[in-house]
Design goal:
Length: about 180
């Protein structure tokens, strides 16, 4: 039995979980998420806990057991607490600004600005011009949007300019040696 898969998921009072056959719906103060589980995995609700079980010990079933328990846990945590990624912008003249409520405009040393529009369920916040906060209830979507923003100007190993996650360490390289 998977150590991750057999751990029950605590459902907080703020979250409403419904299991209809193979569809799990989670609704909370931050949004609503839905996921379809495969046939080999079953989800049951017992009081304020969710139990994820598998039918057999096939390698594929064992792999999906822990995966879907974690995905459902992330759904519950996302609709109650939410997820966020903080991106830092380093470089002279590099900055971010909110264009309107849903769009972000980045100046990253190119001849034109790079616009980024927020997909459904994602919010941007720019507390200062060198900081971008990506928030949402879907962990995968928050990470994907943050990765797409980071890919617009990855951190440079020589000068350290670019977009990086908060707390990310960029190993600096030494430039050419002059003889």
């Amino acid at each position: 039995m998977s150590r991750v898969g057999k751990t029950p998921i605590e459902v907080p009072a703020a979250a409403i979980v419904s299991v209809d056959g193979k569809t799990v719906r989670v609704k909370g103060p931050r949004g609503e998420l839905e996921r379809v589980v495969p046939d080999c995995i079953s989800v049951e609700r017992e009081g304020d806990k969710l139990l994820v079980t598998r039918e057999s010990d096939e390698p594929r079933d064992r792999a999906l057991h822990g995966l879907f328990r974690t995905l459902i846990y992330n759904m519950v945590k996302g609709v109650t607490d939410g997820y966020e990624k903080v991106l830092e912008i380093h470089g002279v003249g590099y900055r971010a600004a909110m264009k309107d409520n849903r769009n972000l405009e980045l100046q990253l040393g190119y001849s034109s600005t790079k616009p980024v529009s927020a997909p459904q369920g994602i919010e941007f916040e720019v507390p200062n011009p060198t900081l971008v906060v990506v928030r949402g209830c879907d962990k995968q979507a928050v990470g994907q949007v943050a990765a797409e923003i980071r890919s617009l100007r990855k951190p440079d190993p020589y000068k350290g300019k670019g977009i990086r996650y908060r707390g990310e360490y960029v190993r600096r390289k030494v430039g050419k040696a002059i003889k």
